[in-house]
Amino acid sequence: MAERLLEALKLAYEAEKEGLRSYLKYARKTKVGVGKDMFIQLAADEVDHMELIENFREKILAGQPIEAVNVPKGRLSKFMPNIKDASLQPVDRADIGDEEALKIALEHEKKAMEFYKAEAAAATDPKVKEFFEKLADVESKHYAIIQAELDSIRGDGFWFDTIEFSVEM
Questions:
Q1: Between the N and C ends of the chain, which has fewer C-beta atoms within 10 Å?
Q2: pLDDT tens digits for range 27-44
Q3: Helices (H), ranges, the chain
Q4: What gap in Å lies between CA 79 and CA 107, rounded to an integer?
Q5: Which contacts qualify for 126-132: CB closer than 8 Å, 24 or more apart?
Q6: Which domains does the chain show, CATH number per domain?
Q7: DSSP 8-state assignment for residue 158
Q8: DSSP letters spanning 90-112
Q9: Residue 93's pLDDT is what?
Q10: Mean of all residue pLDDT scores within the chain
Q11: Cα distances (angstroms) measured from residue 54 to each of 7, 19, 91, 144
């Protein structure tokens, strides 16, 4: 079990590192200010995940007992729109590069979520299972937020926390 788990943790670490690189690249490229912030926060979450995974891996390598790990929920809740204030904010328009970045980010989060769910399902130790389930949960939330941003580019109402149309008559 330890060998398989160590390999899974190595793969998870590398995937988080790739996500970090991608999100920082997208943050540099997007012209929408709050979009930049969202990608930076996603990148920061990836750093947190890398640290959690590395610490978990080091404990296993040191032969320490597996303990429950506190996985932070993520920093992106502040990007969810506040309907009351959103219509008062100016709107910056996204371009096709932002849409492509979001599509790639969405796919990254989906793969990470599926990987963590599969590892949780394969885990025999309840604490390992819980660790992977918590990581999958955070990735699932990232996926939902990115999907909402992508939907907004397609005209469904919001772009990086700013309403694009008035809901008042």
A1: C
A2: 998 887 878 888 999 999
A3: 2-29, 33-61, 83-86, 96-122, 126-151
A4: 20
A5: 127/66, 127/67, 127/68, 127/69, 128/5, 128/66, 130/68, 130/69, 131/56, 131/68, 131/69, 131/71
A6: 2-163 (1.20.1260.10)
A7: E
A8: --PPP-HHHHHHHHHHHHHHHHH
A9: 43
A10: 80
A11: 12, 16, 40, 26
Quick: pLDDT tens for 74-95.
665 444 444 343 333 333 444 4
One-letter identity of residue 99: E
pTM for the predicted model, two decimal places:
0.76
To the nearest whole percent, how much of the chain has pLDDT over 70? 76
* Residue 145 · residue 91 · CB < 8 Å: no
Which token pair is 47? 């750093």
Instruction: Record the tokens describing residue 37, joined without a space.
Output: 């912030």
